[in-house]
Amino acid sequence: MADGLLIAQVMLISVLITSTRHNDKMANRIRELETANGDHQLKISEMLGTIGKEKHIQKKIAEIIHNYNHEFRQVILSILEDTPATGTPVDHNRTRKEFFEYTLSQIKEIFDILTGDSCSACVKYLDNDYVSTIARDHVSSRSRGEADANPRLKKYKYSENTAFGRIMKEGYRYFLSNNLHAMGDDYVNVNQKWQKLYNATLVQPIRYLRDGGVGGVDGEAEVIGFICVDNMKGNFEEPIAIDILAAFSDPMYHMMYTITKAPATVRGKSDPSGASVAHT
Questions:
Q1: End-to-end CA distance of the chain
Q2: What is the distance between the alpha carbons of residues 32 and 27, in angstroms, rounded to a whole number?
Q3: What letter would DSSP give residue 129?
Q4: What is the 8-class DSSP label of residue 188?
Q5: Is-above-0.90 flag for pTM?
Q6: Helix-strand-coil percent breakdown of the chain, rounded to 5?
Q7: Cα–Cα distance for residue pair 191/189, rounded to 1 Å
Q8: ∠11-16-17 over CA atoms, to 5°?
Q9: What is the DSSP string of 216-250?
Q10: Which of 63, 99, 150, 233 has its CA 20 to 30 A from that of 140?
Q11: What digits encode the pLDDT tens for the residues 65-109?
């Protein structure tokens, strides 16, 4: 089982590199992620065999990751080709939005399994110290419509959320709490109704480590967003939960990079976020 998951995970590296062969600058960025991403895959492969889950659950997680790798390859190729073999121009923003929603739905499914509770997942975009939500998984995009419609939550400073603030200001590699209520006043959230939605959360930065940094050590981090997973019961177990989410954040950086750094022909020419924006 562990070998099967390792193969599925390591595919991320080769997919990232070969899919970007037409864009040298983007390919170089992805190559620099290779070592860190490979470390995540090895950790996941080793730890899934020790988390005490039934073999059919481990197999299910491996299948989810394998399918995700395939989808990621197809999305990258479609973004890099303005007019694919079909002859129809690519709608980059729609492609990215669908990819984000697909990714988040896969993350939700994995963490539903690992935590034994119904989870919600979203991806945040960080722009000049302000946070907004690009997309949610398919389930919570409907259930959290009230928060999405709140003008106060459309864009806010990262300092108004403890998880984002600790990552950005205190150098946390991730933020995890299985009991936010127990943090009392130490936990701040701009959404005053967060208690009705969740009591536990795991937040992973979407980032690029400069100067050869690996795993948050000896490298300056350029954070361009966050992946967030939350639920009511918690059970986010270290280190497996962190490494699984990190395995998704590395390719997510590449997708966010096409929004913020790549030439306009790759980004698309409409909404700079690359997607219709929802918010928490």
A1: 37
A2: 9
A3: T
A4: -
A5: no
A6: 55, 15, 30
A7: 5
A8: 105
A9: TBSS-EEEEEEEEEEESS----TTHHHHHHHHHHH
A10: 63
A11: 777 777 777 776 666 665 555 566 666 677 778 888 989 999 999
